[in-house]
Amino acid sequence: MSLAKRILEGDIRAASRLMRDIDDRIPSALGLLKELYPKTGKAYIIGITGPPGSGKSTIVDKMVDFFRKEGKTVGIVAVDPTSPFTGGAILGDRIRMQRHATDEGVFIRSLATRGSLGGLSRSTQDIVNVMDAMGKEIILVETVGVGQDEVEIVNTAHTSIVILVPGMGDDIQAIKAGIIEIGDLFVVNKCDREGADKMERDLRMVLDMGRKRGDGWEPLIFKTEAILGKGIFELVDGVYRHKQAMEQSRGLEKKLRERTRTTFLEILETEVMAHFIEKIEKEGLLDKIIDDLMNRRTDPYSMAEKVMSEDLIKNHTK
Ligand SMILES: Nc1nc2c(ncn2[C@@H]2O[C@H](COP(=O)(O)OP(=O)(O)OP(=O)(O)O)[C@@H](O)[C@H]2O)c(=O)[nH]1
Ligand SMILES: [Mg+2]
């Protein structure tokens, strides 16, 4: 049976192999991704982001319990933009989901910067697509922090959850700009700690001050104590409420269209760049262009135009 067919049937070993090939940038992986793409788009993708140690993995782990009880199959992608290592063992600490490791219905995969063909968000999407093709119904994407990388990653989700903890104080000002736009649901975790109510109030204020969202959704705030599983039921319910609201307002369709557009343009950009760079490098022209620029014999704008019109290459090889 072909590898693609095995993946479509949910074969874990076949999917793991493809994911390794994606990490290692093996060209045949692209062929498989092409084959699988038309079969994707069925999974519901949930993004979870927040500062290091805020309890993302614990929350994911507890949410998985609910999805599994409903009989849904689950994929988990743990993305760590700060680590150069991809795979199981090294990121194990970050995941803390060994409980589900023996469950056939749960597929867990870690991803770090090494597997970045066209950036981490692209690799994440590739991995998500493989899980989607495998038939995973819910895919949870956990990523650390709230930087630009994470914003892009979380943007690939249907529902985005931002995790915060009490006592972050003024940090809320700092993270405000990045998270307000991306969070559909907000969680104040570690509510056993002091300051949870204040955190919630501060967050509510920041959210209320923010611009009205185009999709009409008003972000919800949940308070959890993830280690004890407190508040997780409500959070899962919040995900379903957001899903339903987005489906009714057609906001989801709009979001998916926007995402598809971004992904395509990113891939096109990568491909176009690779095409021209390969071309001028093969002709040994890159060094010559740099020389000419260094000596101010020409300018980078004209050179870029020239490369794109391919005049340079034609004239040179004539
Ligand atoms: N007190 C308290 N501790 C919690 C709670 N939830 C999680 N923790 C603990 O916080 C620590 C970090 O939890 P993780 O779930 O690994 O957090 P994370 O955000 O995934 O961490 P990274 O992936 O390393 O960024 C662990 O020791 C958890 O047991 C909570 O509600 N209360
Ligand atoms: Mg984690």
Task: Note the topology.
Layout lengths: L2 H6 L3 H12 L3 H10 L7 E7 L5 H14 L4 E7 L11 H4 L2 H4 L4 E7 L7 H15 L3 E7 L3 H7 L4 E6 L6 H12 L2 E4 L7 H14 L10 E4 L8 H17 L2 H32 L2 H10 L5 H10 L1 H7 L1
Parallel strand pairs: 1-4, 1-5, 2-3, 2-4, 5-6, 6-7
Helix pairs in contact: 2-3, 2-7, 4-11, 7-8
This protein binds guanosine-5'-triphosphate and magnesium ion (MG).
Keywords:
single chain, 318 residues, alpha/beta, seven-stranded parallel sheet, binds guanosine-5'-triphosphate, binds magnesium ion
What does this structure look like?
There is one protein chain. The protein has about 325 residues and is α/β, with parallel strands linked by helices. Helices cover about 55% and strands about 15% of the residues. It has 15 helices and seven strands. Strands 3-2-4-1-5-6-7 form a seven-stranded parallel sheet, with helices on both faces. Helix 9 links the parallel strand 5 and strand 6 (about 185-190). The structure holds guanosine-5'-triphosphate and magnesium ion. Guanosine-5'-triphosphate binds near residues 50 and 56.
